């Protein structure tokens, strides 16, 4: 079966002072209908850029994107507008992603009006109430402005906007990072319920590993623009292979007393994404760095069970 | 097993560095009064780390700012209670005396290292500044300079970088510099307000490790403000869970993480975090939202969101249940006795 979203060697370079910044460097994404792909990584690893590239909100420097088997890179503006109804995004910060001068009604109506879905105001109003109910917003909020609501409700408006056009695919770009834990759980449950109900496909971008484990079927770990490991969610947490993934998992503070366990702490910080040398980009922080790690790029290699890793230890 | 008043209970322990009794803080504006902290009591022992845990608006940062007496001048007021530091009450101290205490005896690490450093001063000068202000032994310029180098080495930054400006450092390194400034005068009490919230997990692990190491080396007591129960489990000796300006549960880390009885809010907090070690299909969030601090609910502040809410919860402020230093303020727990 053709996956809903497939990218081949997707690249995005930004021209900056000092050369080309390799934000996303040859990433292959495959997401099947009804599944969730979690994308994790630290700030600056290119995960948000990847999310925008997949929707073609940013023009890729190279590579191909297939949506339902069709190459959307070949689409012109008009075709793109059509296909965008099928693919939506929920942004990280519900405080800055909603127009402060629009009440909830206008905010949710915007995508419907833009695409001229309904001919009469009555139809539009019915649809908006329906959407508000779907995301758990009470009717009385229809005329409130974003600043009058708390973060959780604002994010619900963001979800309603994304759902307005009945999309098949939604990119969730850190949708719960700005929220408190108790509210975060409410939004995560909502997203999972909606997925079951509407057979949605998600690409879930986050830096929070416990959230990603909870919601994803498959997980891709990114480091400096590249995918270093990809596996089924359970498999990745049970059996991480790449040294970066191992360090990342060990760095999470677990809310449980375990005085004896010491973290495996990685030295240093992200290296420069501007004109990187070929080879493993984690090499300078890696304890297992050996000959062959630098100089040539290391491809992702299948370790069985759909577990892919790009590391010289497993070639 | 007894219901003592909070002050009686507090007196039982010795070696107390900081003792807060019944602290009440409000923010006043023309139209309304925000009840940010409502009569909290806790104490910090020598060399001890206490975690203040709660969500946005629980009053954690207000508590910290009250201890430092850094509440906004025209709007924030300490309405009642005392903050005893080594026996002296900080609430009544005039600002000029407070200025000598801040930075030398008590210092604070702020949440966001990107905004808490001065962007147009070199990092060396910023560390030097706090040493110079508290230079009571009349050290020479050269001695202070050496101390700056020493501090930078301590937090793992090469001293040759002291002539650089904050924007030339990464987030984790900036937080190390903030820590160096806070530790410059070897304070007895360090208040860390969400020190790692703005950092990535791998950098967070580095910074937490550094703080733990320095705390052992310098025998500092610490108040760790955070919303991350994982950070608490790794760094704290005692924990106080705050909700709507009150401490709803307090105890040792063992009590909070492994104890049998909990406040429903604490239970809710644990249920809302996805668990890495076990499979869960659904999270159990706490229904509803934080109460409006200008109009707090009657009785137990948590009752509108509590799944065990009883009639008595709506009317009466819950009594304090106490067993071996584990405090829970809930009708449910007291009733079960």
What would you say about this model in short?
The complex is a heterodimer of chains A (about 325) and B (about 325). Chain A is α/β, with parallel strands linked by helices. Chain A has helices at about 45-55, 75-85, 105-115, 120-135, 150-165, 180-200, 210-215, 235-240, 245-250, and strands at about 5-15, 20-25, 30, 35-40, 60-65, 70, 85-90, 170-175, 200-205, 220-225, 225-230, 300, 310.
Could you characterize the architecture of this molecule?
The complex is a heterodimer of chains A (about 325) and B (about 325). Chain A contains nine helices and 13 strands. Chain A is of the alpha/beta class. Helices cover about 35% and strands about 25% of the residues of chain B. Chain B is built from 13 helices and twelve strands. Chain B has helices spanning about 5-10, 60-70, 95-100, 115, 125-135, 140-155, 170-185, 200-220, 230-235, 255-260, 265-270, 310-315, 330-335, and strands spanning about 15-30, 35-45, 50-55, 75-85, 90, 105-110, 190-195, 220-225, 240-245, 245-250, 320-325, 325-330. Classes of the chains: A alpha/beta (about 325), B alpha/beta (about 325). The interface of A and B includes residues 184, 185, 213, 251 and 254 of A.
């Amino acid at each position: 079966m053709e996956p809903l979203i497939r990218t081949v060697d997707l690249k995005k370079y930004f021209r900056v002072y000092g050369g080309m910044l390799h934000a996303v460097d040859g990433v292959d994404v495959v997401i099947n209908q009804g599944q969730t792909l979690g994308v994790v990584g630290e700030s600056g690893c290119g995960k948000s850029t990847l999310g925008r590239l997949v929707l073609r909100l940013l023009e890729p420097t190279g590579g191909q994107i297939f949506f339902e088997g069709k190459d959307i890179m070949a689409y012109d503006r008009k075709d793109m507008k059509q296909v965008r109804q099928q693919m939506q995004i929920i942004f990280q910060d519900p405080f800055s992603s909603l127009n402060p001068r629009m009440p909830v009604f206008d905010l949710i109506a915007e995508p419907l009006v833009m695409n001229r879905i309904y001919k009469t105001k009555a139809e539009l109003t019915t649809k908006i109430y329906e959407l508000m109910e779907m995301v758990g917003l009470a009717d009385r909020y229809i005329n409130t402005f974003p600043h009058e609501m708390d973060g959780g409700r604002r994010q619900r408006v963001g979800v309603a906007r994304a759902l307005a056009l009945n999309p098949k695919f939604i990119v969730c770009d850190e949708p719960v990072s700005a929220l408190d834990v108790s509210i975060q759980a409410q939004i995560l449950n909502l997203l999972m319920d909606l997925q079951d109900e509407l057979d949605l496909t998600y690409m879930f971008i986050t830096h929070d590993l416990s959230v990603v484990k909870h919601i994803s079927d498959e997980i891709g770990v990114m480091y400096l623009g590249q995918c270093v490991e990809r596996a089924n969610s359970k498999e990745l947490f049970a059996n991480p292979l790449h040294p970066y993934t191992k360090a990342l998992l060990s760095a999470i503070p677990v809310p449980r007393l375990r005085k004896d366990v010491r973290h495996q702490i990685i030295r240093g910080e992200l290296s420069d994404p501007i004109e990187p040398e070929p080879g493993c980009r984690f090499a300078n922080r890696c304890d297992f760095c050996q000959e062959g790690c630098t100089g040539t790029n290391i491809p992702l290699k299948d370790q069985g069970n759909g577990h892919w890793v790009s590391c010289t230890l497993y070639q | 097993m007894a219901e003592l008043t909070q002050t009686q209970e507090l007196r039982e322990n010795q070696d107390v560095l900081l003792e807060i009794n019944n602290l009440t803080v409000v923010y006043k504006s023309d139209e309304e009064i925000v009840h940010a902290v409502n009569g909290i009591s806790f104490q910090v022992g020598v060399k001890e780390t206490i975690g203040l845990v709660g969500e946005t608006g629980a009053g954690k940062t207000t508590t910290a700012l009250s201890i430092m007496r850094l509440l906004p001048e025209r709007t924030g007021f300490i309405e009642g209670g005392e903050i005893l530091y080594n026996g002296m009450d900080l609430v009544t101290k005039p600002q000029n005396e407070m200025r000598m205490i801040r930075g030398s005896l008590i210092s604070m690490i702020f949440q966001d290292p990107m905004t808490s450093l001065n962007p147009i001063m070199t990092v060396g000068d910023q560390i030097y500044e706090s040493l110079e202000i508290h230079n009571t032994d009349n050290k020479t310029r050269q001695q202070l300079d050496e101390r700056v180098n020493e501090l930078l080495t301590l937090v793992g930054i090469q001293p040759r970088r002291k002539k650089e400006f904050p924007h030339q450092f990464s987030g984790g390194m900036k937080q190390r510099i903030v820590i160096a400034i806070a530790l410059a005068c070897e304070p007895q009490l360090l208040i860390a307000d969400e020190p790692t919230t703005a950092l990535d997990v791998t950098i967070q692990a580095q910074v937490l490790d550094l703080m733990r190491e320095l705390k052992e080396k310098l025998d500092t007591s610490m108040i760790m403000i955070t919303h991350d129960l994982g950070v608490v489990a790794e760094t704290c000796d005692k924990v106080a869970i705050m909700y709507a300006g009150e401490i709803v549960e307090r105890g040792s880390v063992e009590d909070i993480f492994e104890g049998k009885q909990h406040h429903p809010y604490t239970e809710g907090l644990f249920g809302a975090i996805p668990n890495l070690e076990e499979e869960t299909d659904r999270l159990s969030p706490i229904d509803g939202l934080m109460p409006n601090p200008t109009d707090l609910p009657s009785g137990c502040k948590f009752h509108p969101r509590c799944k065990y809410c009883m009639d008595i919860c709506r009317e009466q402020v819950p009594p304090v249940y106490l067993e071996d230093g584990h405090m829970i303020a809930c009708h449910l727990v007291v009733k079960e006795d």
